[in-house]
Specification:
Immunoglobulin-like, disordered N terminus, Jelly Rolls, mainly beta, about 500 residues, 5 domains
Length: about 500
């Protein structure tokens, strides 16, 4: 029946074509409407809900070119847009304040839901079927697509065509609201009715009217937004994308297709039970936490730097590649919605011991031994004693003295002390020590006897006119810088004792 009507219509159109006004269909002024776009913003920015009143092309072009993020596509019109602060502050440099007004400062998105919006021009279709064409013969745009198009002059009948557009929304768990908008016009010279429909592809990439469809207007207008029923939300993802399909037998020109979606996507919970070992091991730190069923993976940080990605289900990790000392560890969970807050704890290896302080070796106090002492430290299990770079032995915990009896008289040695525990030993602190002289041993035979008395008397009586420095030093028993009878008496008393 329709074909018969179309033939008659074509004949009438051919006979009376001189009375038909030709030319593009003009865009209509769009009245102020709902919030339908949100410019990119960071989470810590203040948001402003702004209404723009742009009644002519000049004003429209100023804002459209100055702030392309606002996605103004309807031409001269009134728009409501959500602007982050870094865009809001630029408005006075773009347009006079009598052409925009603040509806709400410190705007907060409702319910904390995620929002996705995307336009695609007609020419950006991801696939077509049947009769389609480009050229925009009936609109004043340049990026459109004509569906059901055939320009054979001899055949006035319409041809069936279809096209589809792919939209890839962000990761989500639930769709709260999904809307599709189409701007276009039927291109027949004498449109009588519409045979142009909008639907969406199923998960298997097929489509049919029994799922959902909307009939598009024959006039140049914005069709929609059409709210898709929630009952089909589980079956509208062809190859993971929302794919609107437009089919027509009426030379329908598509300017753009727009998809808006409010969605919910919860980040994983903050990892619980996160713990880092302290002073447990010498060269590694053990980390553990409770299993997080929301996590698809984890990222472990040490001192603010990511060191390891971990699979879901992991609840333990040992950090072997760690320098001695204390470190700050943080763990965050990840899933397709985002990243959790971090859970942190401080861990440490068994502390490296400090070198003992106040190391002191005796200087001449003893003739055949040297006494070594030092201050005690915490967390040590003993000390190692070195003489001239050779290990002599070790002490027990908290023991801070050592007597070296295996030394020569009148000799100097270097003593070094290192603290130790189960992880090893510290660096060393050192001091030199000297064995003493046997006062009165003038002949240096390591004993005091009458021969030494004779030598001392000879010095006093000046029978020995050229005594050595050693003889003079060893003879001064009372250390008064004189060698006399008092020194002889002390020497004899030493022998008798």
């Amino acid at each position: 029946m329709k074909n018969n009507i179309l033939i008659l219509t074509f004949i009438s159109s051919f006979i009376f074509s001189q009375n038909i006004e030709e030319g593009p269909i003009k865009k209509e002024f769009v009245e102020p409407g709902k919030v339908d776009a949100l410019a990119p913003f960071s989470n810590d920015e203040t948001l402003y809900l702004i209404q723009f009143d742009l009644p002519n092309d000049s004003l429209y072009n100023l804002v459209h070119e100055g702030l392309p993020e606002l996605d103004l596509r309807n031409g001269p019109a009134s728009y409501q847009r959500i602007l982050p602060e870094h865009l809001y502050v630029t408005l006075p440099t773009i347009i006079g304040d009598n052409f925009y007004r603040i509806i709400r400062e410190n705007y907060i998105q409702p319910d904390g839901r995620g929002y996705f919006v995307q336009y695609q021009y007609g020419s950006q279709s991801s696939g077509t079927g049947g009769e389609v064409g480009y050229g925009c013969m009936c609109t004043d745009g340049s990026d459109c697509l004509i569906i059901g198009y055939n320009d054979d002059w001899w055949d006035p009948l319409d041809y069936y065509g279809e096209a589809w557009w792919s939209f890839n929304p962000p990761p989500h768990e639930y769709i709260d609201d999904l809307q599709i908008t189409v701007q276009g016009v039927q291109c027949d010279d004498l449109p009588l009715w519409s045979e142009t429909y909008l639907t969406v592809k199923r998960n298997d990439c097929s489509w049919a009217s029994d799922q959902w469809q909307a009939e598009l207007s024959i006039n140049y207008t914005v069709n929609g937004p059409y709210t898709l029923p929630q009952s089909i939300y589980d079956n509208i993802f062809c190859d993971g994308a929302i794919t609107p399909v437009i089919s027509s037998e009426d030379n329908y020109s598509v300017d753009f297709v727009k998809v808006e979606m409010y969605y919910t996507c919860d980040n994983p919970a903050t990892p619980s039970g996160f713990s880092a070992s302290s002073d447990l091991n010498c060269t590694d730190i053990e980390l553990s936490w409770d299993n997080n069923p929301d996590a698809e993976s984890y990222v472990l940080y040490r001192d603010g730097i990511a060191i390891m990605p971990l699979e879901a289900g992991t609840i333990r990790y040992v950090d072997f590649d760690v320098s001695p000392g204390e470190h700050n560890y943080c763990l965050e969970a990840e899933n397709f919605c985002g990243t959790s807050y971090q859970s942190c704890d401080v861990g440490s290896t068994v502390p490296i011991l400090n070198a003992p302080t106040n190391v002191s070796a005796s200087d001449g106090t003893y003739t055949s031994s040297i006494y070594v002492s030092w201050d005690d430290l915490n967390n040590e299990t003993g000390y190692k004693i070195y003489r001239d770079g050779i290990w002599l032995g070790s002490t027990f915990e908290n023991q801070t003295e050592y007597l070296d009896e295996y030394v020569d008289d009148q000799s100097e040695y270097m003593y070094c002390i290192a603290s130790m525990n189960e992880c090893g030993e510290s660096i060393q602190n050192c001091d030199s020590g000297i064995t003493g002289f046997l006062m009165g041993d003038l002949n240096d035979d390591s004993s005091i006897d009458v021969l030494d008395v004779v030598l001392m008397v000879n010095i006093i009586l000046e029978f020995n006119l050229d005594p050595t420095d050693y003889e003079l030093f060893i003879s001064d028993l009372n250390n008064d810088s004189f060698i006399n009878v008092q020194d002889v008496i002390l020497l004899i008393n030493s022998i008798l004792n």
